[in-house]
Design brief:
The structure is a single chain. The chain is an alpha+beta fold. Helices cover about 40% and strands about 15% of the residues. It has a two-stranded antiparallel ribbon. A hairpin with a 7-residue loop joins β1 and β2. The N and C termini lie far apart (about 45 Å).
Length: about 90
C-alpha cells in the first residue's frame, strides 16, 4: 500500500512551493515581470503563471465582506508615494 502525504506548503500539480510563489508575487507587484524573470532565470510565462495563480488565490479571500475601511498613507513622508490600505472592519 502506498500513502500520500498532504503538504500544506506545496500545492498539488505545482512546480514551486507556496512560499516561493508568494515571494515572486510580491516582487512582481513592486517591479515588473521582465525584471523578476531575468533575476530568477524563469520564462516570462512562468512568472506570469505564478503571479496569476497567487492573485486568484488571494482574490477569493474576501468572502462576504460587508463593511470596508479605507485609508491612504504615504510610503515616504514628503513624497507623493501613497498607498491605499483596505481592511475588513468586522
Amino acid at each position: 500500500r502506498y500513502t500520500t502525504e498532504v503538504l500544506s506548503w506545496l500545492d498539488w500539480k505545482r512546480h514551486y512551493t507556496a512560499r516561493y510563489e508568494a515571494q515572486i508575487y510580491q516582487r512582481v507587484k513592486v517591479t515588473s515581470i521582465e525584471q523578476v524573470s531575468r533575476e530568477e532565470t524563469l520564462s516570462r510565462e512562468e512568472i506570469k503563471g505564478i503571479f496569476d495563480h497567487v492573485y486568484a488565490r488571494k482574490k477569493n479571500n474576501w468572502g462576504s465582506v460587508r463593511r470596508l475601511a479605507l485609508d491612504e498613507i504615504a510610503m515616504r513622508k514628503g513624497h507623493k508615494d501613497f498607498v491605499t490600505v483596505v481592511g475588513d472592519i468586522e
